């Protein structure tokens, strides 16, 4: 619903239109300084045009000084770029209108990162945090005619190293990333995208640049810098109120009347108010007259609106289980979060286009996801990301940008973090898609399980620093700024129990509390007993390679083998390539084609099959653990696998390749996250099938037993109709495998497999699922399929806009063919 902000007494009014937008109350003038600037390196040997917003790497590539930074080993070859200092310069001419304004601000929406700004040769200010917006008052420095604006940027690598050197009292680990990442050291000393110094799925490209917009804003009296709104629901009075925050920049003390109204709800309030000179934040509350239903109206509309929805994180005792529950209640209803983790979409943020964002987020929705976690080692995403999430109904778990490290707590550092947190919360809190703020990624776990070999005697000091940063500063600030959603200090964490234990629990991975991150590459992923029956699985996953069509443009022929330098160079996770092969070999024949290229492409492909099957098994385990407590554990209410997207063309845990192509996992996710879905597993040789449903339905189960040789079932079993309540997982079938097979032709574990589906009276509900009774490598009767694939432009188009896919037939006829693997790379893209 639209929010109107009317200021009278200043004779002006405006319509609120989105966060971080800046409005004039009296003919504010804006001079856009984006566009073509000049860029030079420290010794002046390079001088080139550079686009703003942008970064040094992108400018060098656009001007032909470097080739594609993602090509082969270029991440290492282009290390020199971030070891140099760079200067951006532009010139502009003042208009007569602008020069008579009372106040002129030079605004940078984002500087990456350590910058000195000067105007006409005079220092204006400094920057050291890429997550902050900066404005500098520059009226007195402007002159008639040409003005010269310069931003000098220090090498982020050298800056981080200097900061580290200056920090002599104790080590703030880790000092450097593992060698396999080929990255830079001390990223925790600079407030910048933490993964830009390398990660276990990403290259080291420590960017520098003016990564967001630059402009002049000139006004008289005052300007409204930002408006944000959060709705709060009062249970006791069954009433909504909307808290509205105005950030005002006033030239001088100004008094007047402020009217806030939401006409659609017939709610309006007027306040007599005044604003002091400088920037001030003022909060106002409007009570909503209309009685609003607590039904989901909120997640489906765009800003500039006020949205109404409630979110609670429920941590309370669970019958039959020690510990506390951990689930989200949205508009009064418990919701199982189904989704994934979001990492930066590109090393060079200026290359993230609206289409790329839309495509990824639509892909998440198309795979039946309802949630994404914006992971804390990347960036706070751009406004458009959250606008699309609001519109598509994607719930966002928003981390603050701290990951897998300890951080300094000197005053300067804390000060810049405080500014970052306040700005980001103010920018983002109007978005209903954000359902939780979370302080950091894995830093509680890093301390608790001693990732960094901190001597026992020094541990209290690190815990004190941890509490100071995330609790005394970040948590406190966030809760002052936003009372409409929960705050969690870390992920994984035991939540309320971690708090009881002084914010660092003895075991933050305890399945009886909070959320869990769980990875095991060695254990057999087909065995559900290896997974923790946690309350909430916020990270888990397996690596795979992207398809050949994604790798080909960044490699050459000599790279195309699994043992090549390129293949090991792109792998940033220790032993990752080997782990994928070992996990695959548990159930599949490894590719053995004599043609090396075919063997390579078959290998890339089979890693995707392995990954899809592993994440499917684990996710199914979490979904079916929703309604029960077994051995004191269960009531799982979230499954967010690691990770949705890729930053470059390399092996990773992602389900979508760089460029947008779906891996096999993403097609699988479309099924395993479906609203209605049957899941099978074996326990002591008994086959058990659960019906999982987000909707209340009377459902029956149909099980088809197929032999590996034929497309018609050998036999079919039907269960009777049963009510499956919405938001539950219910056992609907139980039979020893031996008796099931005995009643079905000549089936054995090696010759047959099962497919099964849920149905109501008239039709199938949800996708068909399958269960193997042996590893495909042991299956008997598989025949080589006779499939011809014709590549066409239609297929290529589909790579970027994947259609629905069908699976079981495809699997039984092609994937698991026993002798060698049929290359069906592009077959993923066949429509249903
Ligand atoms: C988790 C994440 C990331 C990492 C992933 C895979 O720990 O938080 O830091 O990329 O695992 O190792």
TrEMBL record:
Superkingdom of the source species: Eukaryota
Alphabetical keyword list: Glycoprotein, Glycosidase, Hydrolase, Lysosome, Signal
Cell location: Lysosome
Metabolic or biological pathway: Glycan metabolism; N-glycan degradation
Beta-mannosidase-like galactose-binding domain: residues covered: 37-212
Domain Glycoside hydrolase family 2 catalytic span(s) in chain numbering: 328-488
Gene Ontology biological process terms in this record: carbohydrate metabolic process; glycoprotein catabolic process
Signal peptide region: 1-21
Catalysis: reaction(s): Hydrolysis of terminal, non-reducing beta-D-mannose residues in beta-D-mannosides
GO molecular function: beta-mannosidase activity
Mannosidase Ig/CBM-like domain segment(s): 686-778
Pfam families associated with the record: Glyco_hydro_2_C (PF02836), Glyco_hydro_2_N2 (PF22666), Mannosidase_ig (PF17786)
Entry EC number(s): 3.2.1.25
Assigned GO CC terms: lysosome
UniProt cross-references to PANTHER family, sorted A to Z: BETA-MANNOSIDASE
Family under the similarity heading: Belongs to the glycosyl hydrolase 2 family.
UniProt-recorded name of the protein: beta-mannosidase
Organism of origin: Astatotilapia calliptera (Eastern happy)
């Amino acid at each position: 619903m639209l929010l109107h902000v009317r200021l009278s007494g200043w004779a002006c009014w405006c319509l609120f239109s989105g966060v971080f937008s800046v409005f004039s109350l009296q003919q504010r003038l804006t001079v856009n300084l984006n566009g073509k600037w000049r860029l030079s390196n420290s010794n002046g040997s390079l001088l080139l045009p550079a686009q703003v917003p942008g970064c040094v790497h992108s400018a060098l590539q656009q001007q032909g000084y470097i080739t594609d930074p993602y090509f082969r080993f270029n991440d290492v070859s282009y290390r020199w770029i971030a070891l140099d200092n760079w200067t951006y310069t532009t010139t502009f001419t003042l208009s007569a209108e602008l020069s008579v304004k009372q106040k002129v601000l030079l605004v940078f929406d984002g500087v990456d990162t350590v910058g000195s700004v000067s105007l006409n040769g005079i220092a204006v200010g400094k920057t050291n945090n890429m997550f902050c917006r900066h404005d500098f008052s520059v009226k007195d420095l402007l002159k008639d005619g040409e003005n010269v604006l310069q931003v000098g940027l220090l090498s982020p690598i050298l800056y981080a190293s200097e900061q580290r050197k200056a920090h002599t009292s104790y080590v703030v680990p880790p000092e450097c990333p593992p060698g396999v990442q080929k990255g830079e050291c001390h990223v925790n000393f600079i407030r910048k995208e933490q993964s830009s110094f390398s990660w276990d799925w990403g290259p080291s490209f420590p960017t520098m640049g003016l990564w967001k917009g630059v402009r002049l804003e000139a006004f008289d009296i005052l300007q409204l810098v930002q408006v944000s709104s959060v709705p709060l629901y009062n249970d006791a009075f069954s009433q909504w109120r909307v808290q509205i925050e105005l950030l005002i920049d006033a030239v001088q003390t100004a008094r007047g009347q402020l009217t806030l109204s939401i006409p659609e709800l017939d709610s309006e309030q007027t306040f007599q108010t005044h604003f002091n000179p400088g920037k001030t934040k003022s909060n106002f509350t409007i009570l909503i007259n209309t009685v609003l239903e607590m039904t989901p109206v909120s997640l489906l509309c765009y800003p500039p609106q006020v949205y109404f929805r409630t979110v609670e994180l429920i941590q309370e005792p669970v019958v039959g289980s020690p510990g506390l529950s951990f689930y989200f209640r949205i508009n009064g209803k418990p919701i199982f979060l189904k989704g994934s983790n979001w990492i930066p979409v590109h090393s060079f943020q200026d290359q993230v286009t609206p289409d790329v964002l839309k495509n990824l987020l639509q892909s998440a929705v198309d795979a039946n996801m309802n949630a994404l976690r914006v992971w804390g080692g990347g960036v706070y995403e751009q406004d458009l990301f959250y606008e699309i999430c609001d519109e598509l109904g994607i719930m966002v778990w928003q981390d603050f940008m701290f990951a897998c490290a300890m951080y300094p707590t000197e005053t300067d550092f804390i000060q810049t973090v405080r500014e970052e947190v306040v700005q980001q919360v103010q920018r983002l809190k109007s978005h209903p898609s954000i359902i939780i703020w979370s302080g950091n990624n894995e830093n509680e776990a890093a301390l608790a399980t001693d990732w960094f070999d901190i001597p026992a005697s020094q541990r209290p000091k690190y815990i004190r620093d941890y509490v100071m940063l995330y609790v005394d500063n970040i948590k406190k600030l966030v809760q002052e700024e936003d009372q409409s959603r929960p705050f969690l200090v870390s992920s994984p964490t035991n939540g309320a129990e971690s708090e009881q234990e002084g914010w660092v629990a003895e075991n933050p991975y305890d399945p009886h509390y909070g959320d869990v991150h769980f990875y095991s590459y060695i254990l057999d992923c087909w065995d559900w007993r290896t997974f923790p029956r946690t309350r909430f699985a916020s990270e888990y996953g397996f690596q795979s390679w992207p398809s050949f069509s994604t790798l080909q443009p960044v490699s050459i022929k000599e790279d195309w083998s699994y043992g090549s330098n390129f293949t090991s160079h792109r792998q940033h996770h220790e032993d990752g390539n080997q782990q994928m092969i070992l996990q695959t070999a548990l159930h599949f024949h490894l590719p053995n084609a004599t043609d090396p290229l075919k063997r390579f492409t078959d290998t890339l492909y089979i890693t995707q099959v392995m990954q899809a099957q592993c994440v499917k098994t684990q996710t199914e385990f979490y979904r079916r653990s929703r309604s029960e407590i077994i051995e004191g554990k269960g009531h799982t209410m979230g499954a967010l696998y690691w990770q949705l997207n890729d930053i470059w063309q390399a092996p990773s845990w992602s389900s979508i390749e760089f460029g947008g192509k779906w891996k096999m996992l993403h097609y699988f996710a479309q099924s395993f996250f479906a609203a209605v879905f049957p899941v099978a597993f074996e326990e002591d040789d008994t086959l058990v099938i659960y019906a999982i449903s987000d909707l209340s339905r009377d459902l029956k189960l149909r099980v088809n037993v197929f032999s590996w040789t034929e497309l018609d079932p050998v036999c079919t079993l039907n269960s009777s109709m049963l009510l499956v309540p919405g938001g539950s997982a219910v056992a609907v079938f139980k039979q020893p495998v031996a008796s099931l097979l005995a009643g079905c032709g000549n089936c054995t574990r090696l010759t047959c497999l099962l497919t099964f589906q849920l149905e109501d009276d008239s039709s199938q509900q949800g996708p068909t699922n399958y269960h193997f009774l042996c590893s495909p490598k042991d299956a008997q009767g598989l025949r080589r399929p006779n499939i011809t694939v014709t590549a066409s432009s239609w297929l290529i188009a589909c790579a970027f806009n994947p259609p629905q896919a069908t699976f079981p037939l495809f699997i039984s006829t092609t994937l698991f063919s026993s002798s060698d693997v049929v290359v069906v790379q592009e077959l993923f893209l066949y429509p249903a």
